[in-house]
Structure prediction request, 142 residues.
Amino acid sequence: MIEICFVCTGNTCRSVMAERIARKKAKLRKIKDIKFSSCGLFAKKENINQNAKKILKDLGYDARDRKSVKLGKIKPTTLYVAVTDNHKERILTKKCLSFKDLYGEVPDPYGQTEEVYLKTARMIEKNIDILLDKIENMRGNL
Prediction:
């Protein structure tokens, strides 16, 4: 089982969107042995952002409410995927990469329009596609 945890600032927009997008994309690819989660460096048990929920729902992803989760103790078996390099620098493990290492960093949409959240979701989708491609390619070479 591979465990992947997406990390952003508050775990109300980008990282929770990434978790839910990744979960559905992995299911569509019939990848069953990956567990996805998300957290925030400064999460305060807030609900998922309403614009994030709407865009997730509009795109066919899980849009249920959920309280944000603060990054706790680093698990040595988990791969952490930071939304930005700034987040990556704060995660104290070698098992961490950022979206910049994949397709590109995703700016914080917090407080912006639905259109910005849609662009955010599309950027996250591209990062997730590349991440899942890399996982599948590595397995093919084993």
Helices lie at 14-28, 50-58, 85-90, 99-102, 114-140. The chain has a mean pLDDT of 96. The longest strand covers residues 2-8.
